[in-house]
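Lecture 7, part 2: worked example. A protein chain together with 3-methyl-2-oxobutanoic acid.
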Amino acid sequence: MAWPAGRRITIKDLQAATDRGERWSMLTSYDALTAGIFEQAGVRALLVGDTSAEMVLGYPDTLPVTMDQLITMVQAVVRGTRTALVVADLPFGSYQSGPQAALANAVRHLKEGGAQAVKLEGGRRVVPQVETLTGAGIPVMGHLGLTPQSVNVLGGMRRVQGRGDAGEELLADATALERAGAFAVVLESVPADLGRRVSEALRVPTVGIGAGPHCDAQILVWQDMAGLTTGRLPRFVKQYADTSGGLLDAARRYAADVAAGRYPDQAHSYA
Ligand code: KIV
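Predicted complex, written out as structure tokens:
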């Protein structure tokens, strides 16, 4: 069975692809233009992630982004796409207090934003939230391993999670999320062997980001994938373009043309 062309991909399509052994990809997206490009490229699902706090809003971590800010971005990504499944992140503070807060905010993502699913961080401790959301008909993606909303407990954003005994804990968290109804689980910054073990243990797809080659799907922050972010990046990031260099060059040539009086010329002026 092929991917649907004339309608949005659903969580059932993602599960069917995983069941037939087909790997699929996700990217983050925060605006209509990039969302349309990624969908055209065959990226099946887009995450309006709380990484927008860093990538769009310029904060040092993911904590400050609000529901209102994310909903504006979710709306843009939905408007820019026709077939991609749009997953909206539940930001820090929007679900930790309990299932009712999670439900109220997840409903906003679907009703106001137009998303088809939500994502939240954590394992056994968020099972009540996952059960309440899935019970209300809201598809939930889990997120284990390096969970950036816990940066202040983890003590940094570069630490590989799940080594040694922590691997068993992570496996138990993943199983609990699946049992609670999660349709997929993101595994961030964990050893490849743990990524394999979790992927073998779960029926629902695992979505790896720094979790090795055995996950059912992969996700990257789009600015990392496209080389818009520069400097020291996590080992798992592969850059497929030099967008930063290309933009810098374009902006430099534009500024130089303006300074030299070469732009606008006649060809770019009205008669
Ligand atoms: O917010 C985000 O972009 C994420 C991905 C890195 C998985 O959670």
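Residues 119 and 141 are 5 Å apart (CA to CA). The radius of gyration is 20 Å. Keep this in mind for problem set question 3.
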